[in-house]
Amino acid sequence: MLLAPKLKFLSFPPLFHYSKLRLSSSTSSSSSKFSPWSGFQSWRESPLNEDRFWGPNGPRPLLHSSSDIDTRGTPAPLDVSGSSLSELGALVLSTSDPLTKSKLSHLAFSRWRNENLPIGRYQPPSRPARPPKPQLVSPKEIPVSKNSGLPLNAYLLHNLAHVELNAIDLAWDTVVRFSPLYDILGQQFFADFARVADDESRHFAWCSQRLAEIGFNYGDMPAHNLLWRECEKSSDNVAARLAAIPLVQEARGLDAGPRLVQKMVGFGDHRTSSIVARIAEEEVAHVAVGVYWFMSLCHKMNRAPCSTFKELLQEYNLELKGPFNYSARDEAGIPREWYDSSSTNKKEPKENQNSNQQLSEVYDRLACIISMESERSSLNRPSE
After folding, report:
1. Which residues is 54 bridged to in the sheet?
2. Are 237 and 8 in contact, with CB atoms under 8 Å apart?
3. How far is CA 2 from the centre of its chain?
4. Is the pLDDT of residue 379 over 90?
């Protein structure tokens, strides 16, 4: 059965313009100050990015030559059969081998773009398929660099590769899990997160390539499952998903990027520092996507974005950690008062708080409608 997620903070048409968000005074002071990432529209409209190999002068397309070596030889042709974007996303989520997952992610996005496939509706796996290695342990059990058996550059690259591999799954899970809400969210929501998944697959390919160049592989040290646990928390609520992943987890990447670059420069590995710097630069788009869609949800529900974000942090036990990279967060469009209590002491409008009970009734009715529609739809699909 195809189960519909909860429709908390959801009752809106699919597409909104930034101008609407800036001009709305009823939502909050945060939205009136909202300044979207300047490259957002060009990122959306950009052609397929085939720069999946890191050459001597930066990223470029992978060439079928002896100089562009796939560390495991020539793979068998990949099966990307599927009739919709959500079905292709589920295929990626069900793939355990990391490099194959990365390649499938790109092929899935490419096929959807090139063949104009529908978004469709599909049930995601309960959790993404994972390889035997790395061993997944609690964050406290991850060894520090000096006890890991890896040099500092390999240690940091391995951690970054793990983040990027998880990010592929986080983006595709958002596409597949919330596909029953297509009529409400609209095509652009899914197009944005499928493009995020494509970006993340390219980032993992760069990390994996560089690890191989210095004599290591993804899986050579333990890793944690914290990122997926955060994703699971928000499996029933698209607003919470936006808060948990792009606005908290991916925003942390903006904070950490400059520090990782400096560590690699200090270590003397300028090639790795260039890769990390490029990944951090491209992550701005992913946070900007989260800001845009979170603002859109709050705007159409007449909710104050700042207080709604903070309520979700509390409800879903999401933790904000500094130090913050204010310039990168500003570029991505996250208002500072959302995450830094020292930025403002302004209260959110009381009318938003008074409307919660009425809105809750709307959510429940909508959830029932979507659930019934999804169940009827599932009767016409072969059982999985």
Report:
1. 59
2. yes
3. 23
4. no
